[in-house]
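Title: Comparing notes on inverse folding

I've been comparing how different people in this forum approach sequence design from structure. To keep things fair, I'm posting one structure and asking everyone to reply with a full sequence. Here's the target:
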C-alpha cells in the first residue's frame, strides 16, 4: 500500500503496512524512481483525487501493476475497515 496523503492526514490512521510519501512533496517523482517498478502497488489518498494522479504518474513512469484505491481512506473508513496509528 502506497499512501500519498499529507503527514497530518496520515496521522489520522493508516492501513497496516502502508508506506507514506506525500504527493505534494517536491521530490515525489524522484521517490518513485527508488521504488521497484515490477512490484504491484495499491495507491491511496484521502478521497481519491491524489491517488488517481499518482497512479497515472506511476504508470507513465513504467510501473507494471498500479491499482488506485478509488474512494481513498474516507471510503475505507466509511466501510469500518481496520487502520492503525502510524509509528
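Reply #1:
Here's my take.
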Amino acid at each position: 500500500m502506497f499512501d500519498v496523503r499529507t503527514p497530518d492526514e496520515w496521522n489520522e490512521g493508516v492501513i497496516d503496512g502502508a508506506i507514506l510519501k506525500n504527493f505534494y512533496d517536491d521530490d515525489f517523482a524522484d521517490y518513485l524512481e527508488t521504488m521497484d517498478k515490477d512490484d504491484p502497488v495499491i495507491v491511496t489518498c484521502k478521497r481519491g483525487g491524489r491517488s488517481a494522479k499518482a497512479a497515472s504518474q506511476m504508470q507513465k513512469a513504467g510501473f507494471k501493476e498500479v491499482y488506485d484505491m478509488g474512494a481513498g481512506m474516507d471510503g475505507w473508513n466509511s466501510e469500518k475497515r481496520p487502520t492503525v496509528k502510524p509509528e
